[in-house]
Design goal:
Elements: H1 3-9, E1 11-13, H2 15-18, E2 26-28, H3 50-53, E3 60-65, E4 69-71, E5 76-78, E6 83-85, H4 100-103, H5 106-110, E7 114-123, H6 131-138, E8 155-160, H7 165-174, E9 179-184, E10 189-198, H8 211-221, E11 231-235, H9 249-258, E12 262-264, H10 271-279, E13 281-287, E14 302-307, H11 315-323, E15 326-331, H12 345-355
Helix pairs in contact: 9-12
Length: 359
């Protein structure tokens, strides 16, 4: 099919453009970060829009969208066939040069059969669903179900395919009693009597979640005991899927152990054990990766993030600032953000001397 026709068949829009007359059920105004203690690091090119926007969460809202469709294999809402609601795609800004018609194939919009669901539904997942995106993007939308406007309304949570392990652990703690979960077939487009749209509570590539949400979320997941700040953690990626492995990790670990920093493979721990570990953390050293999401469960820790490229991806820079953690970073000189890389051990040791002056 010619490119011009394909462009017209698949278009990008936003909720406020597609539904200009829909009234929000609930709102959450943007929340500003306190000024940074140190100069801001250089951001990777795809994250530089956050230079202007990253100091605050967006203005957020929830609304019922008439006649929206849930595209269950792509995990997005569409305002009629071919009209992609970018507000429901949590990673579209990470691929600024990827045309919308290449990301969402036109046949998926027009030729897939539609199935009907009764009642009000909320789609749980988004296009990216790893541990970070589940905790920072997907689960926070459940916050909208606890707002006054939703009190007493039965809601069906749509999950295409089986649970991820972390979803099975978090969902019972976060869902209201009016919610039920339905596993649906990804190969269909799904239309409901009422589709609840809830904004993501953070910006793309920023782990800054609003305090009102954290005050709701953390008491439901944290241990009910005092903290014991005793763990200095190095998150190894030697068994993690994807890249960003430290190629000189044996040398890095030898240095870290002199500062009583212990290597941990989070893949070996279930979610409860990870939360307990970070709840008692004093410091975390890690390559950029989803395991750093667990800093949400710590209090006033030192974070040393290791990046493969000269410029950082700022997900955890913003998360650390929003949580009151002390953040520093070391960068390598690779070209790709998923590249494996060698850590400058001398620079790491200088940083550790600053963080742990007495060891």
């Amino acid at each position: 099919m010619k490119l011009g026709i394909t462009n017209r068949l698949v278009r990008a829009t936003h909720v406020r453009e597609a539904y200009p007359h829909v009234e929000p059920l609930a709102r959450l105004p943007g929340e500003h970060l306190p000024p940074p203690a140190e100069p801001r690091p250089d951001f990777a090119e795809e994250a530089r829009f956050l230079h202007a926007e990253g100091e605050a969460t967006p203005d957020m809202f929830a609304a019922i969208l008439p006649d929206a469709l849930y595209h269950a294999s792509a995990n997005i809402l569409v305002a009629g066939r071919g009209r992609i609601l970018l507000d429901t795609d949590n990673v579209w800004q990470e691929w600024p040069n990827s045309p919308i018609h290449r990301r969402y194939y036109w046949r998926d919009q027009y030729l897939r059969p539609t199935r009907r669901l009764r009642g009000t539904t909320l789609a749980l997942r988004s296009p990216a669903n790893n541990y970070y995106h589940t905790v920072v993007d997907n689960l926070p939308r459940l916050f909208w179900l606890h707002q006054q406007a939703m009190a007493g309304i039965p809601i069906t949570i749509l999950v295409p395919g089986p649970y991820r392990p972390w979803e099975a652990s978090y969902l019972p703690r976060l869902l209201p009693p009016t919610a039920r979960i339905v596993e649906i077939e990804p190969r269909y487009l799904w239309r409901s009597d009422a589709t609840l749209f809830g904004s993501y509570l953070s910006r793309a590539m920023s782990g800054h979640l609003p305090r009102r949400y954290l005050d709701f979320f953390l008491p439901r997941v944290l241990p009910a005991r005092p903290r014991d700040r005793r763990h200095r953690i190095y998150i190894t990626r030697r068994s993690a899927p994807g890249g960003r492995r430290v190629t000189n990790e044996a040398e890095v670990v030898r240095v870290l152990e002199r500062y009583r920093v212990t290597p941990i493979a989070l893949e070996d721990l279930d979610l409860s054990a990870q939360i307990e570990l970070f709840y008692d953390a004093e410091a975390v050293v890690a390559p950029h990766g989803a395991g750093l999401t667990n800093m949400l469960y710590a209090e006033s820790i030192d974070v040393i993030e290791l990046h493969p490229t000269r410029a950082i991806m700022p997900h955890y820079y913003y998360m650390a600032r929003s949580m009151g953690h002390r953040y520093c970073h070391l960068c390598a000189d690779e070209q790709g953000r998923h590249s494996s890389f060698a850590v400058d051990v001398a620079a790491l040791e200088r940083t550790l001397d600053t963080v742990f002056p007495t060891r």
